[in-house]
Amino acid sequence: MHLTALSGGIGGARFLRGLLTHLDDDTRRSGRRHALTTIVNTADDMWMFGLRVCPDLDTVMYTLGGGIDDDRGWGRADESWQAKAELAAYGVEPSWFGLGDRDLATHIVRTQMLGAGYPLSAVTAALADRWRPPYDTEVRLLPMSDDRAETHVVVDDESSPAGRRAVHFQEYWVRMRAAVPAREVVVVGQAEATPAPGVLDAIASADVLLVPPSNPVVSVGTILGVPGVQAAIAGAAAPVVGLSPVIGGRPVRGMADAVLAAVGVDATADAVAAHYGARSAGGLLDGWLVDSSDKSSVDVVEAAGVVCRSVPLLMTDVPAAAAMAAEALDLAREVGR
Ligand code: FO1
Question: Which CATH class for the 2-146+191-335 domain?
Answer without folding.
Answer: alpha beta
